[in-house]
Design goal:
Helix content: 25-40%
Largest sheet: 8 strands, mixed
Number of helices: 18
Distance between the termini: 52 Å
Length: about 550
């Protein structure tokens, strides 16, 4: 019965990533733009060549247990694999590195049978013991797992009675746990032999069991992967059951958007994650195809450190929410191809409460000013709010990808009397500072497929992790704990509806918009498929030479 309910729940949801954010787009036959006379996809896959993907951010490390960056998860996922996987058509959870799995009637014991014949890039065989060691490493506080530990929180014990059998005992049933076991980046098995050999350098010399092997990392420029010639254990939904077709896969780091598009035009990169306005330019270009999908997350939100003496005031946080004209931001940043976000969950995630559209903190400058005045602030001669000789001033931390919305928000804040300065820093440094609470206001986005993301982002136990707002709310904690242990679908909906209302009423965040993800692909790259749950499905892709 538990397994039945779990599968029903996962069919309704379509996974953090305090994306953080995931490389995703839809299948090309439904939502991609193609030239109907193009016969490129009718050719037979060819072996060889290189696929180059542009990335706006550079990873902090390729140790999946020590990173919280989406780009790191994407790259390490290509070098790894997972116990389970999401079927891109049905979103059903299916075996991958596990041949099979069962869940006990009480939902607390998951038994998995590990596939035989799988080896790491360094020749170490994959066994149940290796997976136990991997989970033990994640859960060891000395590892400092930034995100991975969240995905297996609730584990009581992990045992490996034999080489093939892995037994996971949970403290309580966990609705999102099976879905989390499908994370190829954060929860891939790791070779402790390789970790011990590399020591502190492991994050620069990772070893996995996936179709791609690490070759080199040139600081500030690129990370290069080469195909694993021994690979023959791909997911069941791939047509290619053995090694990848291309010889190399390169992630090239290009922060500036125009430079990135110029690289796409010149052919020095093949795939670009683009803004809506840029993607539109390529829709009718026969050299490229544009893939798009509704993102499973919040595309942009303003998070506030509520330990700040001014931001402790709910009126100030609500005023910040009401200062934001989201439609204007969407029009300027997304070329109008986005929707205002009223709460911490998007409509694409199971558990989204549509009532948030009525009780969310809507744009209203007049009410924003009244809220600030009710807390004792008043405009001085320069039009900036002031109280007891202190000016209402904040610093916004952001990375280079959010310069435009930062400037727009700066102007909107000024209209209600808030002086906002902008500090643009590197993405890895930004994540480190906000995790430590060394900020006032920051931009961020996330991608995930389950409402349990609210636990990761708002539960008090996650302070120092992804609870950047540093929320400590006992009632909210209780709801989020209940939500992740409740299997019955309708009951989970009710729990998360109440949690969303608390988050919005307390104005811990200022959600701005949900968006589509756009990827422009050079048609020399064939066979690419994309899905909500798995992101870029690259194993069937090949290079037309």
């Amino acid at each position: 019965m538990v397994v039945k309910h779990l599968k029903k729940s996962y069919l309704l949801i379509t996974v953090f990533i305090l994306s953080m954010f995931i490389l995703a787009a839809c299948s090309s036959d439904k939502e991609s733009t193609k030239d109907q006379g193009d016969d490129l996809n009718q050719s037979t896959p060819q072996s060889g060549g290189t696929i180059t993907i542009a990335a706006a951010e550079e990873p902090d490390t390729l140790d999946p247990h020590k990173t919280g960056m989406n780009v790191a998860s994407r790259i390490t996922g290509l070098m790894g694999a997972s116990l389970l996987t999401n079927d891109p058509e049905t979103n059903e959870i299916k075996p991958f590195l596990a041949d099979s799995y069962t869940v006990s009637k009480d939902g607390k014991t998951i038994t998995l049978k590990i596939r035989q014949g799988i080896v790491f890039h360094d020749g170490t065989p994959l066994t149940a013991k290796v997976y136990k060691e991997t989970f033990d490493r994640i859960l060891n506080p000395e590892t400092g797992a930034k995100v991975a530990a969240n995905f297996i929180a609730g584990i009581k014990t992990v045992s490996a009675p034999d080489d093939q059998t892995l037994v996971i005992e949970l403290v309580v049933p966990s609705a999102p746990f099976l879905s989390n076991l499908a994370l190829e980046g954060y929860l891939q098995p790791l070779s402790l032999t390789a970790i011990e050999k590399q020591g502190d350098d492991y994050g620069r010399n990772p070893v996995g069991v996936g179709p791609w092997k690490f070759k080199e990392w040139v600081n500030g420029q690129s990370i290069t992967l080469v195909r694993n010639e021994e690979y023959k254990w791909s997911q069941s939904f791939y047509e290619n059951k053995e090694k990848a077709y291309p010889e190399k896969l390169v992630y090239k780091f290009i922060k500036d958007t125009q430079t990135m598009l110029a690289a796409l035009d010149s052919g020095s990169v093949d795939i670009v994650n683009a803004a809506a306005k840029d993607a539109q330019r390529y829709r009718n270009n026969k050299k490229f195809e544009v893939l798009e999908i509704d993102s499973q997350g919040i595309g942009l939100f303003l998070e506030m450190n509520i330990e700040n003496k001014i931001l402790k005031d709910t009126n100030v946080r609500k005023a910040i929410n009401m200062a934001l004209n989201k439609e204007t931001i969407i029009k300027a940043v997304l070329n109008g191809e986005g929707k205002p976000a009223n709460g911490p969950l998007p409509p694409t995630i199971f558990g989204y409460d549509p009532n948030v559209e009525s009780y969310g903190n809507k744009y209203n400058q007049e009410n924003a000013i009244k809220l600030l005045e009710s807390s004792g602030w008043s405009k001085n001669s320069t039009g900036i709010m002031e109280k007891d000789g202190e000016v209402l001033r904040f610093e916004l931390l952001t990375d280079s990808t959010h310069k435009q919305p930062a400037q727009i928000v700066q102007a909107m804040f000024k209209e209600i009397g808030i002086d906002l300065s902008i500090q643009t820093i590197e993405a890895g440094t930004l994540m480190e500072k906000v995790s430590k609470g060394e900020y006032e206001i920051s931009f961020l986005k996330y991608t995930y497929n389950d409402p349990d993301v609210l636990y990761i982002l708002f539960h008090s136990s996650q302070i120092g992790g992804l609870n950047h707002a540093r929320v400590q709310n006992a009632k909210l904690d209780a709801l989020l704990e209940q939500g992740r242990t409740t299997i019955e679908t309708e009951e989970r909906k009710k729990i998360y509806a109440e949690a969303q209302k608390i988050i919005v009423e307390e104005a811990y965040w200022a959600p701005i918009y949900t968006q589509k993800e756009y990827y422009i692909v050079n048609k020399r790259v064939q066979g690419l498929k994309l899905s909500n749950s798995n992101g870029l499905l690259i194993h069937d892709s090949w290079v037309k030479q």
